[in-house]
Amino acid sequence: MTPEDRIHALGIWNGPVDISAITGGITNRNYLVRDGALKRVVRLGDDIPVHHISRSNELAASKAAHAAGLSPAVIHHAPGVLVLDYIDARALTPEDLRDAGTLERVIPLVRACHHDIAREFRGAATIFWVFHVVRDYIATLEAAGSPYSPLFFDLLIKAERLEQAAGPFEIAFGHNDMLAANFLDDGKRLWLIDWDYAGFNTPLFDLGGLASNNEFSEDAERAMLEAYYQKPLTPDLWRRYRAMKCASLLREMLWSMVSEIHSTIDFDYAAYTAENRARFERAYAEQDQ
């Protein structure tokens, strides 16, 4: 059955629908569906155990994020299918997030994610612990005979050092995928979407991911942390943050290595691996400076 056939067969439409693909998804396939005057977003994707993605957790997080006022409403769901209300908005870019004014608007949204969604979440919740994810990714890659295997012994040592350096840890409900495209601007407010990796984590993982994914300058990183915590930045927080930022880059690199083997989505994962490897190595070398 084609994706279009699956969408037509959902049985929730008022009549003939127009379906168009939304580009950019790298863990699922997204479609804009016009149903008369209504527009919906349909996300197609099954569980991805190698990436710790559970669609039931994504559904629960999506509902909680809507209840907290951060994300569009869930209209319908079925195994492998999530239908969301359409938000007429523009996805942000890394350039947008490097703008001080935009970042000032983003930080309250991230803080609300960390503090408000847990109050609305129902059912068993996932823990997204980046250092466990790193170790599990390396085990998955070794079992698959990955050509990157010569790197893994050193990466495990670095991961242990980062885990020690990043503590002690706060716990909050994290989004855990702070890509620019997951922030939408409708001209009046911002939205946060795509809850594939949502789960309890330390806030510094989201903050480190926000900075690393969007290539913030050090001045922007310091401003981000002071805006988030609403107090002057201390040397201890800066140390813990830089370690967690490195961990977020390490996880992104390993995520891409695993995707090179397991993903069926048309995306240049090898180039993404190389990009994130270079960024991780640079950040790791700089973190103790």
From TrEMBL:
GO terms for molecular function: ethanolamine kinase activity. One of its GO terms (biological process) is phosphatidylethanolamine biosynthetic process. Coiled coil: none annotated. GO terms for cellular component: cytoplasm. Keywords: Kinase, Transferase. It holds the Pfam family Choline_kinase. InterPro entries: Kinase-like_dom_sf. PANTHER family: CHOLINE/ETHANOALAMINE KINASE, ETHANOLAMINE KINASE. This is Thiamine kinase-like enzyme. It comes from Rhizobium metallidurans.
